[in-house]
Amino acid sequence: MAATLLYLLKANVVLLLFTAAYFGLLRRLTFFFLNRFYLLFALVFSAVYPVLPVPALLPAAAVLPTAMVLVEAAPASASAVAAPVAPFLNWEALGLGLYAGGAALLLVRLLVQLVSLWRLRRTARPTVVYGQPIRALTGPVSPFSFWQTIYLNPVQHPAAELDAVLRHEQVHVRQWHTLDVLLAQVAQALAWCNPAAWLLRRALLDNLEYLADHAALQTGLDRRAYQYSLLRLSHGVAGPSLVSSFTFSSLKTRVAMMNAPLSSTGQLARYLVAMPLVLAVALGFSAARAQGAGPVVPAATSPSPTGTRPASPAQPTKPDNAKAATTGTAKMAAERPAASARFVIKERNATPGIVGAPAPVYYVDGKLNNDVMNTINPQDIAYINVLKGEQARELIGKSGAKGAVIITTKQNQDRADVQAFNQKYGVQQPLAAAPEEAKGVPYLAAPALAYITKNHPEARLLSVTEVQPADGGAPQYRAEIAMGRRAHYLLFDAQGQFIPQ
Fold first, then answer.
1. Spatial separation of the C-alpha atoms in residues 174 and 177, rounded to whole Å
2. Which residue has the higher pLDDT, 326 or 375?
3. Spatial contact of 327 and 426, defined as CB atoms under 8 Å apart
4. Domains of the chain, residue spans
5. Which of 108, 122, 221, 229 is 20 to 30 A from 51 via CA?
6. How far apart are CA 116 and CA 240, in angstroms?
7. Which of residues 393 and 344 earns the better pLDDT score?
């Protein structure tokens, strides 16, 4: 799955979890400041959560010992098999394009609303009412505020009602409620296909009105007269849809919240359930994905002297003899692999004590070393052998391990004791490839492997094919990678630099 799609999936799922927790546990509480913090945190956390280094925030899981398994690769056929043609329609790109188009449309609408407010500000006349600077409007428009400015028509309000309106709008201005509104609008635009984004925006706007109503009543306004004012103003002309206005569809709920008794202190426990529950589910999912799947190591492939694609791993060839099956060798080198190499190295997790997944023992230069993964640089390895059956039992006895991995390093491969140990247990050094065989062998340089690992961390490297450009330039190397059930192709030059297609 593309990184962008994975980001969108995680962000929208977490936003849905926060919304469900709010409507299920917190919506009816009168802790309006806590609800404001919860809703803002939900919007911000949902956006940044997919890019958080979640495994670094959690205790490291125990790493299972890794067993190297040498698998004989099938030789390339003389008649090259045609590579599968990539699908004509890229559904991932099409889905991302539709998603981006919807988000862009809503962002443009938000921009148009901001421009409309800017024009309204230019036409409104600045004045002062009861010591409060405002922008005076003309016509029967319901009062509203945006940023640090209150907009209303002083002529259409009686004195008592005008005082209540100003106190209400002053709360919006003092507490910077416009920031909440803009954040909710942007979140709704970016997650437009998620119903949770629309519900959370509506909940945030409602909660801001609850806050302003509660604060206005705390200044000494008569509750009943204030509610009658709301009812009268609800029949007026609504202000711009972007702003917090006196008129909105849930007026009945707004009055009910003013008349509801204050939530008891014991109800605070709901916050101790809602937020940690959502965070635990979100972080737990990411930790399970990161630690359970483990790092994806591109599978090495056997090079082909003819420059053709090797046989599929699903069709392994039969070993030439029993000795090749038990003591096959694989040379791990930093540079270009030899043409005579017939084995690839794969990795699997082995859990001691579980039937079917025994852990082998490791010997490095004739010495037991089961921490080889942390102490040996792969570039320092000259060759590797695997002992099984009687050969392994002769070396390790009845320790319970199924097999032994013999690693010989470049630095010590000529040492007398290392050669004596290898000769005793039948360790064979791979034959060097002839110079003429090494010519034209497909390979990937280190920068190419680093590019694949960074940009396609979940992909598997299937094959490498040398291709000749139509203009007769330097040969290029096409890497076939598998992402899920689909094959993709990447092109690199001889130095391993990616070539866009």
1. 8
2. 375
3. yes
4. 3-52+96-283, 62-85+312-439, 444-501
5. 108
6. 8
7. 393
